[in-house]
Amino acid sequence: MKPVVDLWQERRTREGSSDAVYGTLREAILSKALTPGPQLAEEDLARVFGVSRTPIREAILRLETERLVERSSGRRVAVARISPAEILEIYDVRVALDGVAAELATQRATPPDIAQLRWINEKMIASGQAGDYAGVSALSLDFHDWIAKASGNGFLLSQIRVVHDRVRRFERTTLQHPGRLGSAAEEHERLLDAIASGDVDRATSLARAHMLNAKKIRLAMAETPPD
Question: What confidence tens digit (pLDDT) does each residue in 43-59 have?
């Protein structure tokens, strides 16, 4: 539980007890410091965090609502598993949301937005060349997050971030698949060119195609177990 304790130390001094427990457990699940399988007892968590069971119970209820944990019996819970079917459902939603984000961003993105997106894409490529695929995955999500920011639609951004939280839990990134990092970076650049030129139809089509390509890679990876 050491990574969880480290996260707790970062939060406990600046947030209320229940919020801090919730935020710590949530980040531990999203970052895969806590993984599906082992059961977590309220009393054990209370001992780790040095708090009563009440904030633990409140945090677990919030995490259950987000489908990040599931209750087995009594006070024991476990990190929820993500099924292959759920992963594909998430990609279906990403295709739709990213298409809308690109459409709106094409109408509203500023030159600084475009510059920031190109910088993120370059950093993503550099991280891949350095073999840092955790960094690659984070930067890829940042890229799509920034397009949603550039859309100027706060509700859309919030929904895309919900989806991205689910994506963070995937065991592997599609950008680890042979050749995918280079093709994804090129797709990003073509998308940015369409956004910068104000071509709404092309930007929307490219954004959807980009995510459909990622879905195909995910299906291929599902058939190939990790080394």
Answer: 888 888 888 888 888 99
Contact status, residue 22 vs residue 59, Cβ threshold 8 Å: yes
CA distances from 206 to 139, 159, 210 (A): 19, 20, 6
Secondary structure (3-state) at 153: coil
Q: How many angstroms separate the CA atoms of 193 and 114, rounded?
A: 9
Helix H, strand E, coil C: the string for 62-98 is HHHHCCCEEEEECCEEEECCCCHHHHHHHHHHHHHHH
Please tell me whether the overall predicted TM-score, pTM, comes out greater than 0.70 for this model.
yes
Residues 6 or more apart in contact with residue 17 via CB below 8 angstroms: 51, 55
Closest CA to 55 of 94, 13, 24, 32: 24
